[in-house]
Amino acid sequence: MGNQKLPFLNSNYSFKEKCGIFGVFGKGFEAARLVHPGLWALQHRGQESSGIASSDGKTIYVHKGMGLVSHVFEEKDLKKLKGHMAIGHNRYATSGDSTVLHAQPILEKIKNNKYIALAHNGNLPSVKKLKEFLTSKKISIKGANDSEMITKAIAFYVREGKSLEEAIKEAYPLFTGVFCLLVMDENKVVAIRDSFGIRPLCLGKLNGGFVIASETCGLDVVGATFIREVKPGEMVVISDKGLKSIQIEKGNQKLDIFEYVYFARPDSIILGKSVDQVRQNLGVELAKEVKIKADVVIPVPDSAIPAASGYSKKSGIPFYLGLIKNRYIHRTFISPEEHTRHKIVQQKLNPMKHIIFGKRVIVVDDSIVRGTTSKEIIKMIRGAGAKEIHLLISSPPVKFPDFYGINTPNQKDLIAAVKNIKEIGKELGVDSIHYLSYQGMLKAVGLPEDILCTSCFNGKYPVDIGERAKEVDFSLA
């Protein structure tokens, strides 16, 4: 099994996160050394933990730990991750718990010294089918999250004598939710995407081998050439025999529109659209809808920079970086000193007073969830001497929780679910607040509405959320 770090696991810990996954297969490759920079490129998709599993055709080696890629891996760790195939995973920092490690890839023993490894991006809102299946097979699910139950189900069929891809195909109907999976045994890497394709997953080519990544920016960093996206409902099997595609279930593309609004890196391409260009378009549409007399346009860095730039170009109001981000502040597990406990936002952002003082300021942000961070940012800008503050959001109000792999709060904690726009403006302390319209957002993305998931805005969940539906007030749509 190789080198595996497994600190204490908390069985009460539940997952609701977006993540980044990255896989490599190629004869002659030091695969882990390609997965490592791939995970660096996907660091924005998860900062809680990181891990890599590799294989030399005989043994699976694993190293994983808590923190950023730079914290988890040293040269000695990569040396131990031998082999021409590897998969990697970055996990999203779930709120309220920064002391527990449940890092991936997950290992599940098959027999003797044989294992399978799995990395999962997504979330299963309902694990009822999985629980019933595993319980019926007398497989313990105590403390297991959705990703671990998926691994156990696949492992069951492998133990029954099925090949890895046959086992995945057999277990697939149990996975009731959203998933991009990378699964590996000693000889092959398999990528699977749920039939709705809510999370992105792409395939690339590199020196006769193959690379699979959550986003194209991951392919770019290792010099791989983009081939195509893994299709919704498709399983891609990569082995010594090359690449084989199996369509397990008919696809019905419903990419999460939030990938364009906020999640994805701006240099990625998804469904043929540049994420950066879409974000600039969001700003242009905002400028068409919202006309304000102001002196400066400033973005909340980093994800709102393209939208603010688009707004500035269309409106003719000058664009400035009025908030400077400290790029070296990452997720920390050190408790802050009492005087700085409530100044976390100030540690990450600092206002440029000479740009803001005495000015009518337009602040552009991509979204508002709870509103707590926005409130702190507005207070900071007001403290820097802004004469007026107009907050513009480059997406519609978020009124519904996500069940597909994003750590959003309960609906009652979403500010737009409990307050109207005027009340939100008052709560945040701005002179005015304006959201981009739903139609304006769709126009900016430039893709048909029926291939996108917009559940956070309208409560239309393409993948059945099962028993979680009782948590949602659909009358807010």
Secondary structure layout:
Elements: E1 19-25, H1 31-41, E2 49-55, E3 60-66, H2 69-72, H3 75-80, E4 85-91, E5 106-111, E6 114-123, H4 128-136, H5 146-159, H6 164-171, E7 178-184, E8 189-193, E9 202-206, E10 209-213, H7 216-221, E11 225-229, E12 234-239, E13 242-247, E14 255-256, H8 258-263, E15 269-270, E16 273-274, H9 275-289, E17 296-299, H10 305-315, E18 323-325, H11 344-348, E19 349-351, H12 353-356, E20 360-365, H13 372-383, E21 388-393, H14 415-418, H15 421-428, E22 432-435, H16 438-445, E23 452-453, H17 455-458
Helix pairs in contact: 4-5, 5-6, 9-10, 9-16
Quick take:
With 477 residues, this protein is an alpha+beta fold.
Descriptive account of the structure:
By secondary structure, the chain is an alpha+beta fold. The protein has two domains: 19-253, Aminohydrolase, N-terminal nucleophile (Ntn) domain (Glutamine Phosphoribosylpyrophosphate, subunit 1, domain 1, 4-Layer Sandwich); 277-326 and 343-446, Rossmann fold, CATH 3.40.50. Helices cover 28% and strands 25% of the residues. It has helices at residues 31-41, 69-72, 75-80, 128-136, 146-159, 164-171, 216-221, 258-263, 275-289, 305-315, 344-348, 353-356, 372-383, 415-418, 421-428, 438-445, 455-458, and strands spanning 19-25, 49-55, 60-66, 85-91, 106-111, 114-123, 178-184, 189-193, 202-206, 209-213, 225-229, 234-239, 242-247, 255-256, 269-270, 273-274, 296-299, 323-325, 349-351, 360-365, 388-393, 432-435, 452-453. The strands form six sheets. It has a seven-stranded antiparallel β-sheet with strand order 3-2-4-1-10-9-11. A six-stranded antiparallel β-sheet has the order 5-6-7-8-12-13. A hairpin with a 2-residue loop joins strand 12 and strand 13 (242-247). Helix 5 crosses helix 6, helix 9 crosses helix 10 (305-315) and helix 9 (275-289) packs antiparallel against helix 16. The longest helix has 15 residues, at 275-289. Residues 1-17 and 94-100 have low confidence and may be disordered.
